[in-house]
Amino acid sequence: MVRPMQERAVQTRKLILRAAAESFDESGYHGAQITGILGRAGLTQGAMYFHFKSKEDLARTVMLEQAADLRLPERPAGLKQLVEITLTLAVEMQRNVLFRAGVRLAVDLEGPAVRDSSIYRWWTDRFNDELVEAHRKGELLPHVNGAELAEMLVGAYTGIQLMSQITSGRKDLPRRITSIWRYLLPGIATPEALAGITLADGAEARP
């Protein structure tokens, strides 16, 4: 009996997270209501509060688990892989509601709810892993500080996706991310590394 109950609890939690992600994605943190989330999930308040203490707790969990459905490379491979990851994320922003909601919540929320989630740090570290490998392989120019570059990329990505959301509902996000790399790569990558990178629109990242 214990195992079916555990499985049911796992499925209930997934239902709540999915419904919450849809609500936060559509209405933001302040516009989403617990009653609406429960209505989407077809569950009671008791079911929700068994898994989550509050709306803020639910939002924090969506932020933390935004990458749960993403298939990212397990091992860092360097600059080319970093470019590919960011372009993959641009596509995921268009179709993955959990990822999209997590990103929106990180923009909507302020204070401890965001600081405690450390989601910006998580992505910064993930990008930096690729840059550490790129440095080891000699793909970066001598002046490049990988940790600073990773922070800049996360910040730029946050701003660009927000601009894309406002102007086109994120339809042009892959193109905007490609443009970032077209201008950025010549200033950070060695000529040999540049020669091995082709951007999403087929253009080579040449200086």
TrEMBL record:
Keyword tRNA-binding listed: no
SUPFAM superfamilies according to UniProt: Homeodomain-like (SSF46689), Tetracyclin repressor-like, C-terminal domain (SSF48498)
Domain HTH tetR-type: start-end pairs: 10-70
Residues annotated to bind DNA: 33-52
UniProt keyword annotations, A-Z: DNA-binding, Transcription, Transcription regulation
Name of the protein described by the UniProt record: ScbR family autoregulator-binding transcription factor
Organism whose genome encodes this protein: Streptomyces blastmyceticus
